[in-house]
Amino acid sequence: MTEPTIRDNIRALAAAQKSKAGAPLYSRIVNRPVGRVLAAIAHRAHLTPDQVTLLSAACTLAGIALLAAAPLAPAATAGTSLLLMLGYALDSADGQLARLRHGGSKAGEWLDHVADAVKLSTLHGAVAIGLFRSGRLADPALLLLPLAYGAVQNVHFFTYILTYQLRYHGGTPLARDESRPGLLKSVLSVPTDYGLLCLVLALRFAPAPFLWVYGLMLAGHAAYLLAALPKWYLEMRRL
Question: Contact at 8 Å (CB) between 97 and 39?
Fold first, then answer.
């Protein structure tokens, strides 16, 4: 039997996606389509989902190391952001590759979540280290921003994963027709968008404007989380 082409794989994946309803805009418009192409290429190259997860983790951890160690020069900050975005796209690709291979494994899901936990537990600490090493902060108290951001993002991620697993009993909903509220939720969740955060991190070569944008994203993310937690709790009570 003829092996499916990359184009065949992309078409197959387009028909077997997680629902985009409410997904942040970067994930919806950029990350999932790019991840779909990477998954199709990985399938053609006979890679396993776990191998793609490890490749994603390698790109992301390299980017995090550069957040802490690289100079705050435009080329360095842009390169770091691109590396983080590639890691994020591969993070989407591993799940899509698993669906293309007709299902993943509990071990693969565990590995994916562990990689996410490591990423979110170290990313903002690396931002703080990089800013401190630069010596370009007007006030050392500004280092509290990345520390607060790390706490908010971790609480959001782990409570969302718990809610998602309880809601679908470990399953994954496939694509379905979306209504306007799905797109509206995508817009409202912009401050929580990890892909957008990766883009914002490219501004670190100019610490003052970067911290303004970064701080606004933190405030929006915290507000979104505060609104979501009681909603999720009430949803769990109804299950």
Answer: yes
Q: 117-139: per-residue pLDDT in tens?
A: 999 999 999 999 999 999 999 99
- Residue pair 183/29 in contact by the 8 Å Cβ criterion: no
Quote the CA–CA distance of 81 and 63 in Å, as a whole number: 7
Cβ-count burial of 177 within 10 angstroms (0-12 exposed, 13-18 middle, 19+ buried)? Answer: exposed
CB 32 within 8 A of CB 13: no
The structure's pTM equals: 0.87
Give the whole-angstrom CA distance, residue 119 versus residue 79. 18
**Contacts of range 193-198, beta carbons closer than 8 Å, 24 or more positions apart:** 193/24, 193/25, 193/26, 193/27, 194/24, 194/26, 194/27, 194/88, 195/24, 195/26, 195/27, 195/30, 195/31, 195/85, 195/88, 196/24, 196/25, 196/26, 198/81, 198/84, 198/85, 198/88
CA angle 163, 165, 152 (to 5 degrees): 40
Q: Which residues touch 185 (CB under 8 Å, ≥6 apart)? A: 21, 22
Angle at 94 between CA 89 and CA 100, to 5 degrees: 120
Is the dihedral angle over the CA atoms 46, 52, 58, 59 positive or is it negative?
A: positive
Q: Between 35 and 186, where is the model more confident?
A: 35
Q: Bridge partners of 174?
A: 18
pLDDT tens across 220-235, in order? 999 999 999 999 999 9
215, 142 Cβ separation under 8 angstroms:
no
